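We modelled the chain as a single entity of 362 amino acids. Its sequence is:
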Amino acid sequence: MKILHVYTAAIGLILLVASCKKDPPILAAYDDTPYELKYVNNTLPVPHLPSDNPLTIEKVKLGRMLFYEKSVSKDGYMACATCHIQADGFSDKNQFSEGVEGLFGRRQAMAIFNLAWHENGFFWDSRAELLRHQSLLPIQDPLEMNETLENVIAKLKANTVYTDQFTRAFGNGEINAPRISFALEAFMFSIISDDSKYDRYLKGTATLTESEERGRILFFGEYNPFFPETSGADCAHCHSGTNFENDQDMNNGLDTDAEFTDIGREEVTGDPADRAKFKVPSLRNIAKTAPYMHDGRFATLEEVVNHYNTDIHNSSTLDPALIPTMDTGLMLDEGDIQDLINFLETLTDEHYLTNPDYSDPF
């Protein structure tokens, strides 16, 4: 019996030791399952996505991780999401964003959504031809994250979470700048806004109020000085289509030639004809993305509408469509302005602002 007890105890010890052993790690494996863009109302046209960076589920996941990853900054406290906050339309409520050195940028942080439908470059001066090019520049900008790509790569390589995810997204754990940019591009392409009240109105599932409908008519109506009663605000000249932008860089009359402090697109092209021209942003979610304009000079939508209504400044590169309105203004009264703002608020997409697919994965 004593021998049996010893034998039983030995077997129990062996089983205990075996049970304490950690399960072998699950090796990361390449997964090229395509990622399908997620629409709600399908009011947007088919985008032209780059053929050399096909969207996959794992690549979008990696890009989302990198978008929220703070180690890509010099001090380890700043990520892309620091200045592009989902609840604020992936923009910044501050006029200018503060970088890791306590320095401030010179332009307002642009909102992030429906970037697959922008075809004239990125940033306020459209200096980045592709989204992948845009994605790396804030990391290296001394006014923003102020980090080198070499350091970013080294930090990511030291983290097995990232080497595994790069393997899933690209087939092996090699981490380099092009792959980082491709992943960030993929995630930002996945951020879609098409579930505003206006989208539902287009689909016939929502009804605009009387004020919103009048604002819609004003928004799409053309300026006509000969018939003030039916003259529109002519907003759709620049903010057209269901994405409410026109893939152009324009001077919208913020300043005179003598007042220019930011030469905009000219800084990129060197062409004086591009002086003070800036990328036309989408008006989707505009009620959530204050302050407004490239320099954040306007705090409210009322200020924005009043600018176009009565305060266009002439200059050598002012967009020709705005010149005829300078003599009379847009002839909008207080009721018109409120109706127009009420329509603009129908462009807010609460689903996009809270969608967990775009939120912090950590």
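As a brief sanity check on the tokenised model: The beta strands are 249-250, 278-279. The longest strand covers residues 249-250.
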